[in-house]
Amino acid sequence: MKKMTLVMAASLCILTLLAGCGGSSDTYKAGTYTAADVGYAGDVEVEVEFDQESILSVKVTDHNETVGIGDRAIEELPSKIVEELTWEVDAVASATVTSDAIKAAVKDCIEQAKSK
């Protein structure tokens, strides 16, 4: 029984290590990229800064979104995207259209920055 427990523990350790290796392997051309996508009340423009391995910052540089609704997404999503290093984050409740515009624009910037 001890041998089976030891084998299971070793297997769990290996699986944990392999799961940690599953992160993004993208590399980027360092720099700042801009893009826009259609939000609820017009285009939402973003500026995304990269180093060779990650997203350093996301800023919404221009928008006409509704105060109290769309601006919640503008305040919350950029930090989530930087924290998770992906545009694939959850939308802000009640600000789905604005959230989708930010995420689409960031995705565009990621595509621009990907190393070839």
In words, what does this structure look like?
- It is globular, with a radius of gyration of 19 Å.
- It has helices at 2-20, 70-84, 96-113, and strands at residues 31-38, 43-50, 55-62.
- The longest helix has 19 residues, at 2-20.
- Strand 2 and strand 3 (55-62) form a beta hairpin.
- The chain is α+β, with helices and mostly antiparallel strands and 116 residues long.
- It has a 3-stranded antiparallel sheet, with helices on one face.
Outline, from the CA principal axes? globular
Percentage of residues in strands: 15-25%
Number of helices: 3
For the terminal residues, how far apart are their CA atoms? 52 Å
* Structural class by secondary-structure content: alpha+beta
Subunit arrangement of the protein: single chain
Helicity level: 40-55%
The ordered string of helix (H) and strand (E) elements is: HEEEHH
Low-confidence residue ranges: 4-23
Number-wise, the strands total 3
Main sheet strand line-up: 1-2-3
Largest sheet: 3 strands, antiparallel
Rg computed from alpha carbons, rounded to a whole number of angstroms = 19 Å
Mean pLDDT rating: 84
Mind sketching the topology for me?
Elements: H1 2-20, E1 31-38, E2 43-50, E3 55-62, H2 70-84, H3 96-113
Antiparallel strand pairs: 1-2, 2-3
Helix pairs in contact: 2-3
